[in-house]
Amino acid sequence: MQEREKSSNFAQNTNWFIIISMNAYLSISDEVQHALREGRAVVALESTIISHGMPYPQNVSTALSVEQAVRDAGAVPATIAIIGGKMKAGCSKEEIEYLGKQGQQVTKASRRDLPVLLARGMDGATTVTTTMMIASMAGIRVFATGGIGGVHRGAETTMDISADLEELAQTPVMVVCAGAKSILDLGLTLEYLETKGVPVIGYGTDELPAFYTRHSGFRVDYRIDSPAELASVYKAQRAAGLKGGMLVTNPIPEEYSMPEDVINAAIDKALQEAAEKGIHGKQTTPFLLAKVKELTGGDSLAANIQLVLNNARLAAEAAVEMAE
Ligand code: PSU
Ligand code: MN
After folding, report:
1. 46 assigned to active site
2. Is 181 a catalytic site residue?
3. 3-state class (DSSP) for residue 196
4. What span, in angstroms and rounded, lies between the C-alpha atoms of 119 and 100?
5. Active-site option among 181, 282, 291, 293
6. Residue extents of the structural domains in the chain
7. What does the pLDDT average to over 114-120?
8. CA torsion angle for 279, 192, 141, 254 (degrees, to 10)?
9. I need a labelling partner for 178 at 20 to 30 A (CA). Which of 49, 156, 225, 289 fits?
10. CATH topology (fold) of 1-140
């Protein structure tokens, strides 16, 4: 039995090595490669949150403390981005600093952007979609972020639905987030995820958290209270041959959550301004995020930083359970 396990591990590792060495556009850092080869816990982290989600220099310091939080919980962080036309799993400190300084100058890279960015040797900050894709290519199973994209308010006419939802439906990565901001239509976002067959888990809660606040009024499919059970659900999904990932929504810690009326007023104002200015397409989410931040001052940034750290810790704990 043990021999059999050993040889199937060997076969898996060999397959993994062949797959990653076949992709000329994929570049995995030495540390991440070693961890994966030894079957240790690895947590993917996205880079659009660095370039488009927070101002410099807080974006860089946050990205580095998030990596540290993953390490403190016993896993190896892999910040993902596109640098010089390579899909990087495991950015260096210098690369994180570079993306943070470039800010909105870097292309926000979704699935449809990859072929051109790679062929032209360009840089790109990865969204939830492309971070999941690259994590999966590298063999990383868990990913921590702040908030995901979803169905925008008014999508029944604009058809603005984030590619993040499609990716969750097809790519086998567990995404740990703090729910979604109510710049989106949260009810429609849940409906869409249901249609696409994506399990939505509340961590320690029956309610979908709304990023800055712990409550949205919408129920999630399942409540799970331990990293071990998160890992077992992910493993069952794989063992049963099911496609797609899963969404873990982890509420912001009470002490950092924001007053609902303050945040909702800011969101309403941001949506109104976006409509007046005719903001659309890939600019919508970064515009709304920046406006909300501007309207709520430093408070929302502080909350944002804390919830990402909280998600990184949980993702690392789940990854450690998976590796055992
Ligand atoms: N929502 C947030 N913070 C973010 C994003 C969304 O609260 O940083 C970013 C993520 O990278 C997400 C992307 O994948 O925006 C979604 O963009 P769009 O709505 O254009 O798909
Ligand atoms: Mn969109």
Report:
1. yes
2. yes
3. coil
4. 23
5. 181
6. 1-140, 146-324
7. 98
8. 70
9. 156
10. Indigoidine synthase fold (3.40.1790)
Per-residue model confidence (pLDDT) at position 1: 42
Rounded distance between C-alpha atoms, residue 50 and residue 29, angstroms: 19
How far is the CA of 176 from the CAs of 180, 250, 264, in angstroms?
11, 7, 23
What does the DSSP assignment read for 197-209?
T--EEEES-SB--
Which alpha helices (DSSP H) does 139-283 contain, by range? Answer: 155-158, 163-170, 186-195, 227-239, 260-277
Ligand 1 within 6 A of 127 CB? yes
Residue located nearest, by CA, to atom 2 of ligand 1: 147
Instruction: Tell me, yes or no, if the two domains 1-140 and 146-324 fold the same way.
Output: yes
pLDDT per position as a tens digit, 207-254: 999 999 999 999 999 999 999 999 999 999 999 999 999 999 999 999
DSSP structural state of residue 258: P
Q: How far apart are CA 139 and CA 156, in angstroms?
A: 36
CA distance 250 to 117: 33
3-class SS string, 69-105: HHHHCCCEEEEEEEECCEEEECCCHHHHHHHHHHHHH
Lowest mean pLDDT among 14-18, 35-39, 304-308: 14-18
Does ligand 1 have an atom closer than 6 angstroms to the CB of 46?
yes
Distance CA 323, CA 305 (A): 27
Nearest Cα neighbor of 86 from 135, 141, 26 is 26
| Cα distances (angstroms) measured from residue 193 to each of 83, 144, 148, 206, 244 | 31, 18, 12, 16, 11
Which is nearest to 198 in space by CA: 228, 218, 175?
175
Token representation of residue 214: 């712990």
Give the CATH architecture of domain 146-324: 3-Layer(aba) Sandwich (3.40)
Does ligand 1 come within 6 angstroms of the Cβ of 282?
yes
CB of 113 within 6 A of ligand 1: the answer is no
